[in-house]
Design a protein that fits this description.
Length: 407
């Protein structure tokens, strides 16, 4: 069967191996490597991830990444990597413009696929990826998109509380994701600032996480949005060898920024609950400030990624004299993912979300779950919301339905 795992020959007790090949080796490549390297050492997994090969165009850089992060081999052509016999799962950690080509090729080669968010740079690409994933699922293959913040224990626990109806009918969802790494107008023009590579700016980079979390926690899709976007710094210094192809001396050594710096939008969920979102990489002093609050008829939840082991919960059914938000330290063994980690009160961090992500897709592969969450279809729904945001912003915040969303 496609995507078949390999069994160790030296030990009957050892679980079968799952050979992983990863395309991309920068920030996300390092984070995913940490996840793959650690998952089997913390959790009792039905398959043992093996870091078979890492791919990238720069031979020197990709070999250095392989040595640093523990990959057995390095490839400079992703097409070679996805057809290697020792690779059963392909992890796509490249810029968005190559997600569709690599993921579809890997699925067609019989591999399981994990793809970083956002799933693609366009709805059309995402739809093609979903079609490929559905065809592959019929062959027993798994395809999942990497919205890692679902794997924060406090967020997973918040989803549990909402599913248990502790908040009752939802009224409002608010999500803000604020960073400041683009505040300096002389920060160089990287691929994340070029539409042809990134698809969009803060909207796709940060807003995709915000949209996915809102829909995941609420358990329902966004059906329409009203949006504004802005690019505050429209030209930036070119990097040597920048992908724009512009010379460092042309255009005064600067190139155009072709994505948004900030996005602000409201939305409506299928149930009628209202939602608001803000995503920016130009909020001075905010490093990785992903914050959310959900209000329901029976209570409220609040979360801040910069305090990611904590969840604030208000039970509105309690007597008013003693009711109020209480801090839940999400480090107990009964909380999501915490059964394998440290004693209560010993906190986890950002990198652990990638360990949990690796754990979940390994279980999906071993258990034959060909639609693990978040699936490629979930990624397509996020992509449709992002496209509706851009359409609305082009029309000066005209309310824009999200195609395909129920409601």
């Amino acid at each position: 069967m496609a995507g078949k795992v390999q069994r160790d020959s030296d030990s009957q007790a050892a679980p079968p191996t799952l050979g992983v090949g990863m395309v991309g080796y920068a920030f996300m490549g390092a984070a995913h490597s940490q996840g793959w390297r650690t998952a089997g050492r913390v959790f009792d997994l039905p398959l043992r991830p093996v870091l078979a090969a890492i791919g990238g165009r720069d031979a020197v850089a990709v070999r250095a990444a392989a040595a640093k992060h523990g990959w057995a081999a390095a490839e400079t052509d992703w097409r070679t990597l996805v057809t290697r016999d020792d690779v059963q799962l392909v992890d796509v950690c490249t810029p968005g413009d190559s997600h569709a080509e690599i993921a579809i090729a890997a699925l067609e080669a019989g591999k399981h696929v994990l793809c970083e968010k956002p799933l693609a740079n366009s709805v059309a690409e995402a739809e093609a990826m979903v079609a490929a994933a559905e065809a592959a699922a019929a062959r027993g293959q798994v395809a999942m998109v990497g919205f890692n913040y679902r794997r924060v224990p406090a967020i997973a626990y918040a989803r549990r509380l909402i599913a248990e109806n502790r908040l009752g009918a939802l009224r409002h969802v608010r999500v803000t994701y604020l960073q400041d790494w683009l505040v300096d107008p002389d920060f160089p023009l990287t691929w994340r600032l070029e539409r042809e590579h990134a698809g969009s700016g803060a909207l796709g980079d940060l807003g995709a996480h915000a949209v996915d979390l809102a829909q995941y926690l609420a358990g329902e899709p966004l059906v329409g949005v009203s949006a504004l976007t802005e690019t505050f710094v429209r030209e930036r210094p070119l990097l040597a060898g920048a992908s724009t192809g512009l010379s460092a001396t042309g255009s005064n050594g600067r190139g155009p920024v072709t994505v948004d710096d900030a996005a602000l939008f409201t939305g409506r969920l299928a149930s009628g609950a209202l939602a608001s979102f803000e995503a920016t990489r130009m909020a001075a002093g905010r490093k990785n400030a992903l914050r959310l609050e959900i209000n329901g008829e029976r209570g409220s939840l609040a979360f801040d990624l910069e305090r990611l082991n904590e969840l604030s919960f208000h039970d509105h059914t309690e007597p008013a004299a003693s009711a109020g938000f209480r801090r839940i330290l999400v480090t107990e063994s009964g909380h999501p993912y915490l059964e394998a980690w440290w004693p209560p009160g010993h906190a986890l961090g950002y990198e652990h979300t990638f360990v949990h992500q690796a754990r979940d897709i390994v279980h999906a592969v071993a258990g034959g779950n060909t639609a693990p969450a978040p699936s490629f279809s979930d990624g397509l729904q996020v992509q449709r919301v992002l496209a509706a945001v851009e359409e609305s912003a082009e029309k000066n915040a005209v309310y824009t339905p999200v195609p395909g969303a129920a409601g």
